[in-house]
Write a structure and sequence with these properties.
Largest sheet of chain A: 5 strands, antiparallel
Shape of chain A: elongated
Number of strands of chain B: 5
Oligomer: heterodimer
Strand order of the largest sheet of chain B: 2-1-3-4-5
Radius of gyration of chain A: 63 Å
Shape of chain B: globular
Helix content of chain A: 40-55%
Order of helices and strands of chain B: HEHEHEHEHEHH
Number of helices of chain B: 7
Number of helices of chain A: 20
Structural class of chain B: alpha/beta
Chain lengths: 821, 146
């Protein structure tokens, strides 16, 4: 067995199984207790490498044999201490560098062992554990060996007895008298019967065996002293003896007078007795032998149980016939076949073999004389399940005495895969090492160059000998970068080196500059002291050049961008101007509408004045032109002029932007705007219903003129929608209707403006507040109105302007915060 | 005074004695200015501010001539005309409006409107037209014909 100093879990398992195999092999030779003990002592010597081992063999509680290693050593004191004072199962030795333990079996203590002065005392716990395991196996082996020995003794005894019986039988031939004496003195039970089996005589032992006294026995037939179920077998044996003059029957049973059964081996012979031929049966009580065999069988079964439960393949095969004698659960699972026993090993646990496997190790397990050689180990890929196994083969003596092949095989497929991986990784690492491009350099604390690798030399064009031992500044430092380089050393020593390393400038032997990225780390001794620097150096000249190129390009790009910005600014200005123009246009349009509205407002008073003036003549003709008429005339004319003047003022006020936020009356503002444009809507045949709560004191904070502008904008939109709808359908005339409602909630005022102008197409309803969006023909729509309205309400007055379609038209809603006074 | 002038004077007198007017107009300033000259020439001028009131007055007084604006709150002019026509197929109706649109003209023809004046009206023409309509009504065609 090979032990390694460093073992991983897997190898440990292998080692354990190797040991188990070793152990099984060593204890399997149970024919000799001495052999077992020798084997185990050798094993323990290998395992613990002690300075000395003492083994005391115990039989029936008494020391029977003592072995010491080394033999010459005087250890009587220890031996007597072991025999007299060692009471526990194990204990540490006096020296502390070893232990003693008991070898126990079923029937008590078989031996005492002391192992002292182990090679590695630190591991004595480990050794003790292993030794205890070995000791329990050893107990089993010794017990087996002792049983086997007693079995051998019994066999020898039997042989002697048979020989004795032969002699006895022969003697009987000589003298009947003598026979009689011999018969009575014989160690075995002997019964004489006639050729039909009727008993004629029997000795004392036979009386003891059968339980019948002679007088009773002489009336019996042999068939009456055997159990009924055995009669057929017994009769056949008896007939065989009569016919052939000799015969045996093993494992027969005698049924005693009291009905109890005794197992016997029977030897029968036809002899001359009293002048006639009689049958003589010698009965050997085999109870003791059977008992011994039973115990041996139990031990064997225990061994098989251990093998059955091992997490490795275990099988036993006959070395001559190749028949499988034993196969454990693990093997059956491994090859997916449970029907293995009694089949040929080479076509059961291997496949594709035309006969015994070419790689069979049987010939390696026995020497030329046919003696067991030891463990043979090998690795093989199984031909059935293609897994790799580590095999430990050995020839052992089977319970029936045969020499058989025992194999323990551990699955090492995983290890094989790992090995392959490892091999791959190894070659990979080698390839990497060989292809390292980075320069590596080390300096001591004074900056003296102490190491450089070939890549470093190649990079800078120096020979190693030209740099090693030099003090800074090093010849490969570019003078213009000294300060940086010294900084890098300092930062690294202070532990402040950046992860990405330092970008420095080195100089080739030729003077050519080299841009390098240097990753530096301090060299630290085992004692934790900083002893210098280690640097890996990468040539980044190419990268640096690319970076410079990139910088140039970035600069060009930024210039382009600046130009682009100018272009964009121009465009924006253009758009702004356009926007201004649009706003101007919309103002002009609004102005046009205003003038139209003023014209409408003025039509009535102008009409009236015109009529009044014409009436002067009429009144004169009818003789009504008197002071009263003139007074009345001046009064009405003044009213009309005042009305016209007010209209102009209203519009002029309306056009004045509100300077500051003021609190204004919502209902009144709406009323004012409606009265200003009343005539215009009337002209378009559009009626405006204005509904509001009696409480017309609703106040909001904001810009009243702008608010009015929004209302006007919204009702103008309604008007345009109604007119457009009319022009689309000329068959029935649409009565335009606009409804304005003002409602107040706790802290809010809601103004809705709804119309019957057909509503806004759903597809564009989301867009109508966007600037320049219009559905109106270009001569009346600028796309500014609703955008401005929303801005006024939401940005300037903290309100909300929303829209939705209702039955027959659109509904705009303004909500604003109400001011409570 | 010529015969003709005498006849005309007779005619004017008869009109002043018999012919009544209904004038529906919401623009009070204009209405006030207009009715002064009408009151001098006709027996009675009933004035209404909207179509609804106008219809009520028509039913009550059955005036000989109906003058009406078109754009008025509550029953515009056409609605009133339509309902008056259901009561009386023949009463002359004259429309005075600020609207020149063809749509109105078409409507005006449908309801057999006698006259259509666009504001600001020229009073001379207007009165002359009213006289001519009135003359047919008082059955003094012989006397009044030129």
């Amino acid at each position: 067995m090979q032990q390694e100093n460093n073992i991983n879990g897997h190898d440990k398992k292998l080692a354990d199984y190797a040991m188990a195999c070793e152990l099984v092999g060593r204890i399997a030779s149970y024919e000799s207790e001495d052999g077992v003990i020798d084997n185990i002592i050798e094993l323990l010597r290998t395992l613990c490498a002690p300075t000395n081992i003492i083994y005391i063999s115990m039989v029936d509680g008494q020391p029977s044999e003592i072995r010491t290693f080394p033999e010459a050593k005087n250890s009587e004191e220890v031996i007597s201490d072991l025999i007299n004072n060692f009471k526990d199962d194990y204990a540490w030795t006096a020296s502390g560098a070893g232990f003693r333990l008991k070898i126990k079996g079923r029937d008590g203590v078989f031996g005492l062992i002391e192992i002292d002065g182990v090679l590695f005392p630190d591991y004595k716990n480990h050794y003790l554990n292993l030794s205890l395991t070995i000791a329990s196996a050893l107990g089993l082996a010794i017990s087996n060996a002792r049983i086997y020995q007693s079995l051998l003794n019994a066999n020898i005894q039997l042989k002697l007895e048979i020989e004795k019986r032969e002699i006895t039988a022969n003697a009987l031939k000589i003298s009947e008298e003598k026979y009689r004496t011999l018969l009575d003195d014989a160690a075995e039970a002997i019964i004489i019967s006639d050729l039909s089996g009727n008993f004629l005589d029997l000795n004392k032992k036979a009386e003891e065996l059968t339980g019948f006294v002679k007088s009773e026995a002489l009336s019996l037939n042999y068939t009456q002293i055997h159990p009924e179920e055995e009669l057929k077998r017994t009769k056949a044996a008896f007939d065989n003896i009569i016919n052939n003059g000799f015969g045996t029957l093993t494992n027969a049973k005698v049924k005693r007078k009291d009905g109890t059964m005794i197992p016997v081996d029977i030897t029968g012979r036809v002899i001359e007795y009293g002048g006639k031929k009689v049958a003589q049966g010698i009965f050997k009580d085999i109870r003791e032998r059977l008992q011994t065999e039973l115990v041996l069988r139990e031990s064997h079964d225990r061994l098989l149980k251990i093998l059955e439960n091992m997490e490795a393949i275990v099988y036993v095969a006959d070395m001559q016939t190749y028949k499988m004698i034993f196969a454990n659960r693990y093997l059956k699972e491994a090859i997916g076949n449970v029907d293995i026993l009694d089949r040929l090993c080479w076509n059961t646990i291997q496949s594709g073999q035309g006969g015994p496997c070419s790689f069979c190790t049987n010939n390696k397990l026995l020497d030329e004389k046919g003696n067991v050689t030891g463990v043979y180990t090998w690795e093989f890929q199984n031909t059935v399940n293609k897994k790799w196994y580590y095999m430990q083969d050995r020839a052992i003596r089977w319970i029936d005495g045969r020499i058989v092949r025992l194999e323990i095989a551990t699955d090492i497929t995983e290890r094989k895969i790992l090995e392959e991986k490892l091999a791959l990784e190894h070659s990979f690492r080698k390839a990497i090492e060989e292809s390292v491009m980075a320069g590596i350099a080390a300096t001591d604390l004074d900056g003296r160059q102490i190491y450089i690798n070939p890549s470093f030399c190649k990079m800078l064009g120096y020979d190693e000998s030209q740099l090693i031992g030099l003090h800074p500044p090093h010849p490969y430092w570019a003078p213009e970068d000294y300060a940086h380089i010294r900084d890098a050393f300092r930062c690294t020593l202070e532990g402040k080196a950046p992860k990405e390393g330092f970008d420095l400038i080195f100089m080739k032997k030729t003077g050519e500059r080299l841009y390098v990225n240097v990753l530096m780390s301090p060299l630290v001794s085992k004692q934790g002291e900083k002893t210098g620097w280690l640097a890996s150096v990468y040539d980044i000249t190419e990268r640096k050049m690319l970076e410079d190129e990139l910088k140039t390009k970035t600069y060009i790009l930024s210039q382009l961008n600046k130009k682009l910005e100018l272009v964009v600014d121009d465009k924006i200005n253009e758009i702004r101007q356009k926007e201004q123009m649009l706003i101007q246009q919309s103002k002009m349009a609004a102005m046009g509408e205003m003038i139209g509205a003023i014209a409408h407002q003025w039509k009535q008073p102008l009409n009236a004045m015109s009529l009044n003036i014409q009436d002067i003549q009429d009144a004169y003709e009818f003789g009504e032109l008197n002071k009263e008429y003139i007074d009345k005339m001046i009064e009405t004319s003044t009213e009309q002029v005042a009305f016209m003047a007010k209209t102009i003022d209203d519009f002029r006020n309306f056009f004045k932007p509100s300077k500051d936020k003021t609190i204004f009356n919502v209902v009144n503002s709406i009323k004012e705007i409606l009265s200003m444009f009343k005539e215009m809507f009337k002209k378009n045949s559009i009626s405006i219903d204005f509904l509001y709560n009696k409480d017309n004191e609703l106040k909001c904070n904001g810009y009243p003129n702008e608010f009015k502008q929004v209302i006007l904008n919204l009702i103008n939109n309604s008007k345009d929608a109604i007119v457009a709808k009319r022009s689309r359908n000329t068959r029935t005339y649409l009565e335009g209707k606009i409804q304005i409602t003002v409602q107040s909630e706790d802290h809010a005022v809601a103004i809705t403006i709804s119309d019957n102008g057909g509503g806004i197409p759903e597809a564009v309803i989301e867009k109508i507040f966007e600037p320049y969006f219009t559905t109106k023909p270009s001569e009346i729509g600028t796309g500014i109105g609703l955008y401005m309205s929303k801005t006024i309400i939401e940005t300037n007055m903290d309100g909300r302007l929303t829209v939705r379609n209702i039955e027959g038209g659109a509904e705009f809603m303004i909500t604003m915060n109400r001011v409570m006074l | 005074m010529t015969d003709k002038e005498k006849l005309k004077k007779d005619c004017v007198q008869k009109i002043k004695q018999h012919v009544t007017l209904l004038y529906a107009e919401d623009e009070t300033m204009v209405k006030e200015a207009s009715i002064k000259s009408l009151k001098r020439r006709f027996k009675e001028v009933y004035t209404a501010v909207d179509g609804k009131e106008g219809l009520g007055l028509f039913k009550k007084y059955r005036p000989d001539i109906v003058l009406t604006d078109i754009l008025m709150p509550k029953h515009n002019g056409f609605e009133m005309i339509k309902q008056i026509r259901e009561i009386d197929q023949n009463v002359p109706i004259v429309v005075i409006t600020a609207l020149p649109e063809d749509t109105y003209l078409a409507h005006a023809k449908e309801y057999s409107v006698q006259g259509y004046f666009i504001k600001p009206i020229k009073e001379e023409q207007f009165l002359e037209f009213l006289y001519s309509v009135s003359t047919t009504l008082i059955d003094v065609s012989d006397a009044c014909d030129d």
